[in-house]
Design brief:
Strand 1 (9-14), helix 1 and strand 2 (36-41) form a beta-alpha-beta unit. This protein has a two-stranded parallel ribbon. Helix 2 (48-66) crosses helix 3 and helix 4 crosses helix 5 (102-112). The protein is mostly helical. It is flat, with a radius of gyration of 17 Å. Helices cover 52% and strands 10% of the residues. The protein has 2 domains: 9-41, no CATH class; 48-115, no CATH class. The protein contains 5 helices and 2 strands. The chain has helices at residues 20-32, 48-66, 72-85, 93-100, 102-112, and strands at 9-14, 36-41.
Length: 126
């Protein structure tokens, strides 16, 4: 979850090879950082990226749709502002894409896409 300094959640991904001590250490570290633990299995995108990629694609699609009536940069700015201010997030969706890295977002989509049979996690704009 990004940006890490202000997000309250932290994902702990476990695999069968993890020892109980390692999981307990990770949970204690998260607690010491005053984070809420969300446990996830080792799946493509985990939990946070599953939501983030869909949010990113929705924001991109809306910006592309709005760009028919205004310049693309204004549409991106508007969607970013709305997604930050009205969804009460520390960053708007486009600011978050930039923070994580466009290349990283594209890579996450590429990794997740084969597992999402009913979705196409791809954007030409990225």
């Amino acid at each position: 979850y990004n940006p890490p300094a202000v997000q309250k959640l932290v994902e702990i991904i476990t695999i069968p090879e993890n020892t109980e001590e390692m999981v307990e250490f990770a949970e204690q570290l998260a607690s010491n950082l005053r984070k809420i633990v969300v446990k996830s299995n080792d799946v493509a995108g985990f939990i946070g990226n599953g939501h983030f990629m869909r949010d990113a694609l929705y924001g991109i699609a809306e910006a592309e749709r709005l760009s028919k009536d205004m310049p693309l940069h204004q549409a991106i700015y508007g969607i970013n502002k709305i997604s930050q201010d009205y969804l009460m997030r520390p960053m708007g969706i486009f600011q978050l894409i930039d923070y994580v890295g466009v290349d990283v977002v594209r890579f996450i989509m590429m990794v997740m896409n084969p597992y999402m049979e009913e979705e196409d996690l791809h954007s030409d704009l990225l």
